[in-house]
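Q: Can I see a sequence and its folded structure?
A: Here is a first one.
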Amino acid sequence: MSEVVDDVLAVAQNEFESEEPVGGVELVEAPDHRREVEAVAARLRELFADGVVPEDVVVVARDAGAYRSVVEDVFTTNEFPYHVETRVPMGNVPAYRFVKATIDLIASVSERPDASVGYEAVIDPLRLGLCVPGTDVGSWPVPQAEFLRLEEEFAAAEETSGPRSVSEWAEFAGDRSGREWEIASVYLAWIQEEAARSVPDGAWLSEWIQRLLGRHIEQTVGADVQSPVGPMVDPSRSDLSAKHESHYAERVQDQAGRVRAYVDRAEQLTADADAGSGWEIAVRAVGDVMGGESIGTRNADASAVRVVDAGNTYFLDAAHVFVLGLSAETFPQSFTPPTFLHEDLFDAVYDEAHGADDEMTEDVDPYVFYENRQSQYGQDLDLYEAAAGVSAESVTLLHNYLDSASDPVAWSSFVDYLDPEATEDAYVSRIAVDDWLPTVRGAAGATAGTATANDSVAKHGAVSAWSELAGRDRLRAYAFHAADAGHVSGPSISPVAFARLALWTDGEAFHGTIRPRVDRLTTPTFRVGVGGADAAFSPDIDREAVTGDPARSFEVDLYAQCELKYYFYQYLFNRDGDEIDRDRIPDGQQSNPTSRFGRVPRVLREQHVTDRYRDAIRVLIEELAPDRQADLNAFSDPGAVVAWWRENAPSNAPSSIAQSLIREYERVQSELAAGVTRNWDWVGGRTIDVGDGSLALGPHRVDTVTFPPADEPDADGRDTGPYHLPVFYVAERGAATHAPKLCWEPPRDGALRPQECHDVCRQCDDAAWCRIGSKFDLDHRLHGAAVEYTDPVGVVFVEQGVSGPSGRNGYLVTQPGTEDCLDAVEQTERRVTPATWQRLAESWRADLTEHLEAMQHDIGETAVYNVDEAFVGEGTDRYGNNTGSGDNGCATCVYRDLCQLPQKVNER
């Protein structure tokens, strides 16, 4: 045993007498598990550069499985050969999980066929790899794209109608067409067929499970081993010892025979009881017998870094050992709380040991061993001593000093005798939370970033300094320093070192991945490009279906306010699988308004009512009160109107329509008193050609207004109409004023209000503190109405559920001879002359043309969406606090966390 190991073991046993251990012992504090492994990787690169071979290194943890995913990621990125020698709990093996999920579902249906089942329990077997035996329909296991479409539809259906029975889910799947729905129908029919059977004995169940796993193996054995890929990551070395998915399925299949004895024994013990169909016993058998097992794999790579459990180190030898997870309550583990054992247990054990006739001698008593704090600590100490005893030259002890809640974590009691808090000692190092940037250090401690062209850096000279880092780490360093521009805290880098770093990055990864990301963060405009082959699309859908002509008015609302907001909504959330319904706006009041669980942007929630509300208004106009003035004037008071509506309204009509009807009734009274005739119609939608694009003006209401003739002829000519008056419904209080931006306050007397979306709010005197969701956006239904309805009497926006005058606002046009009667029609805040209306209409047409042309893109070309840095940078800090310079809308954007641009701008 080496002197290094002697010191480490003496510390653990409280027998260490020196002030500090000999050279070769190092303690490393890292913020979390990943940084522990990254610290190990950094030291391994140095060892390998000095000629150490991988088989001379052992990485130990009390439970190596807890570090498996991190080790796989970090070691593969660094291109280290490795093998994680630990046992995988059966519950983590997909092949076992789909068998368990399938039997759980079958047992549930068998016991209660009509019971409601959540969609997750229904589709979990398909998610985990179930291959239905005896069917040629579809591909098995279900391809990922098809499964995601199924999951979206099932989730949306449960959100709408709640859980259903399996037979109802089968009916739901049968009503839909497509390959994925054929798969779902076959699968659910098979589940019901199996649930109708009974489990006769253990042999039948064992054979059934093996057949299920055999089908899975047949379908997956031809697939490639899945490897992590990415820029400058070559997983080919680690693939040599990677196990195929079918290997684990075979290991699970080997365990299937053990359920036979469990089921047969359970049937013997419950012979007099009603066991039902037997599926409940099958569930327990699979969970108790197979679920408690684990799977281990042998190390077939003799030239790999061994990552092992501490308990597997007794017969290992290595020159260098790294012990992970030396934290309090982890290694040694926290003591299991004691369990009360009744004294009758000891009596029963005694009686069982002595037998009925006291066959044992009187002076021999059975020994009952019960785990205690001392024995548990002793076991972990044995494991620790075995792990440390592997080393011949160096021992590196690591622990994470923060937990998942960022609370401090102490060192293990095995090493606290060394006073590991004394970080000034040479053998203790601490990795700061923000010290994530890969660097190269020379003998004097200078980094390659700060070195000059003549500095000697790293072990093999400045020229190859960056080459000693992993390729992915070089890309990380380059991306950081390129975007830094002196505004982010962290290590600085000289121009020479920056150029040298660029030379040591992969050309394809640099030009295809890193450089575009750097440009996105350093140029005045942020850009996102979407090609026709983007991952957002499937073989059954193309980009034109998502963004092609005609553009909907609310899509232009999003685009005009923020092109990235349009991008996120249009490409990622505004569809259900391959079904595109661009005319429908998800209900923003629901917790999960779309099957992709994306919240609806606030501008849409404020300015657009739900489909239910719009359909109820259509029924009112077309069926219940087609003759507006005559039908509404038939009631004696507003209360009678409300009572009539509640009695005749569609079953799913929102109750808030009653309040809007009160105001409509009052308008009818004033119109009739002034001699104005006003009818209403429902327009199913209009497509308006503007420039090179077109706008789809969705379903809306259009009133026809005719004014009474003058008592005396007008010298200039009086036109009584009829005039069109488009009416659009908005959702939230205040939106009738915000949508056409009638809330605008002039910065000075006589200031002209701009009519372009990007300027209309910037010139408002209240812009600094305004937090409306439609900021920097004119409702483009206003644009469309101005272009489509020439020479109207105005455009009005009506808030749902508001009966007072404040719930209606818009523009009224003082057509010749109509001034005296306009108050009878509507009372809005803005009246304009016909000439002024024409100028406004031309401004809106130009604004709409600009938006539609920018939204167009040629087929086969990349669509680019831009956001100016000035737009993102103004208004709010990284915490969403208004800074007084104008809120840009980022603080309340539902895609703020997904976008990350406000954080990037404010950090710089």
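Q: Show me another, different protein.
A: A second, unrelated one:
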Amino acid sequence: MRLTIVDSSEDPGLSQISTKSKIEQAVFFGVLPDNALDLSRYEKKTRTQPELENAVLAISHEILTSQTSMNSSSPVSIEDNLARRAKALNTLISHVRSSYPPLSRETTWRLLWDAERLAAGQALWQVSEKHRANAKLEEKPRATLLHECVRMLQEVEYTAVKQIPSSDEQLRQMFVLQLAYLDKILCHAYSVVHDLVEEGERPAAFILRLASEADDIWISVLEIALKFRVENAELYGLQPDSMPEGILTDDAAYIKIPEFWTSGQTMLKSIGPLTKLAGQISESAYEAETEDLCSKVAIENAQLVQLTCHMYEERGHWTRSRGGSRYLAEAKALRENGIKARTEQLRDLVNIGQLPAALQLAEKYRDMHSLTRMIVDEATYLSQSYGESAGISKEVVKPRMDENTARIGRYFRKFGDEFGNAVFDYGLMQGNAGDFFKNAQEHWGKYLKTWLCADPARAKLCWINDVMADKDYAHASGMLKMIATEQEDSLWSKEVQLSLAKLSLLAALPPSSSSTDKQPMATLLEGELLTASTQRRVYAYLLPEIHAAIDPPAELEIALELYARTTRKYHPTLFAQLENTLGKVVSHIALSLEELIDALTLTDQYDTRDPDSSLHESSFYLALQVLNVNWPQLDPGRAEYLLRLIWKRVYVSTNWGALNRKNESRPEDETHDLLRNTPLYHTVMLGTDNLLFTQGFTQILDPADVHDAGTTATELAYLQHGADWLAGVIKDNESMDRTLLSAIEKYKCAEWTVECKRLALADLEIHREAEAADREAEATAEAELEVATNGHGPGNGDAREWTADEERDEYVLEESEGEEGEEPMQVNDRWARVREGDSPNWAVKIEDDEEAEQVAGSEVEGEGAEDVSMGED
């Protein structure tokens, strides 16, 4: 070997060798076999980092574009040329990483992108050769799609290159000089196919072949580029685990990295339309002679959908890493557009017969929306086909149905509730929801039960499933109760649901048990049913006057005019509240507890001719009764407030002024008659007779205990009404307080309350004694009848006669009990009175010589009578 040594001191230009030159020598000559020179060493005092990185990037770009003198720009073999250049880029990164300081992330990725383009170019060359061979075999040889893309690139994008007439030579020059523009080539591939379809002048088969070539171009370039990225990540100092399938998954990893060439904005706008267009072409061009090519395009369509997902994912990560509101908004839009595009593309895949590929992609991206729609639609289609098929056709469809059912089961095991929620949400909204529901009960009952229980809105389906599939009657009862109390507006529907809940609870009892009385749920259901039936009593009370009205608004107007006069006059906010409540009553809308109490305690009560519908004596008792059956489910503060409110209205509704006549002007019996006609007397009488005050929450409260009920915002806060409503209700309740305070201070309300309770208890005892006497007299009469009929009483005669007597007595007793229930009750004249007149049991205004008082109760005639009412002037 001969070496020529030149004195560089005489030539300043030779005194220093540039970093770029040193690296080039190492890359192109250091790799030669049997090389005696070690070109990998470098000076410790090397050039600056920017100089190093600029030199490396320049060498990499020159290799990619064949602008270095070390590579021929007119190679004989394109394949060999591409391989040598790829080898040079591999040597470049290996040499720089082993001989120089670490490169920045930006430079590293730029070098990797150049290598990706070159690797993609190698794959594209193979595709190009295949397309050229196929084109020559056609009846009329033609240029390939890639030829046309290169021509467009030469004319539009790459004007610096001298125009070459030969299309084949243009194609070769592209692989040698223009691989940096691969992304442009891809976009032109879509444009050419799109323009030809828009023109509509070429045969469908010709368009189909071009669409197939476009698919090949996109798939070969992008798939190889991403594959190369993963396989060579470690060579470039990157972590392959951070980029599954070639896509970085962490936003932070994109910081300080330029835009990725594999997910540019223009490419993203081209691949989606190309995917859709290719699918449409394969579907419309399907014929016997094009069947294979259509199948190829359909299969490749799934690969394009996958690449589209990759591009949206990569572009989204990169955009978010930029930071700032503009980029974040763009990233959000990208995500939404990506999901929308994927949903449409998966649906298109199904339309061209690629259901397995579409399901695989939806499963991969956990796209439950698309997965459930495809799987349920397939189940619907197969079910309908099976029903319409016969014989051999059924044998073909049945395995597919079983396969689809097994596939759904696998998704349940893999995704759990995430899939269950989606599949049931969609499946039970379709036309064959009944079949789907039945199939779900049979195969996926556990997941169906979880889905049904997850949302109260599904309770109606849940209880049906409990009864039909699971035989879980106790849970069904709970669901029905929840539906009735929380979801049903219709009173009739509420009663039906409650009745079904009670029936389900009975069905849940073990065979040895025959009663639900001791169960809390049973007590609760009885209370809800009682509340609903009480509302029906309110409507029955209004019905005689409103039955002739033409519509519910007219019914409400009549009801307010007849039964809300006092409240309208003295308490405007409570009247507005009562108006809304009575509107629900006449429309048969279920009332809340507070609304039902208002309907019972704020309406004017009249003594109607029909005792079954009259609320004249029982309204306040019924209010206490519904409170008593509901109090276990109420907050203690709420229950206490409602109890005090009811008793407060009882006392304010009583005509205390009429009871304060001078003793010498009124006999005791007349005073007692007045007491017996007060709401307080009726409430105490009925409550005591029915054990209301000894079995439960309710009790008799004195007037002093109920003063100021409902006059604080704290008491009313749970109702969650507006501030104006709250202030109005407090004002109305304070008005009642003034009336009650006047009754306590002026009219001996407390003393009369004690006397009224004593009288009620005494009358009740007399009533019970009279009932006992009636029962004893009835028993005596039955015994005398027995003797008169048979000549002996029970126990006489032989065993056969005794048995016959027992059976007859039981029958007679049942008959008498049934008849007794139909006869009107006989009332002792001592404690019953007939009230004349038609005045309401509410307040009227009575004026005397001293002052005008508002009173609640019947009008009282006579000089000196002083009354107290619910209102004030």
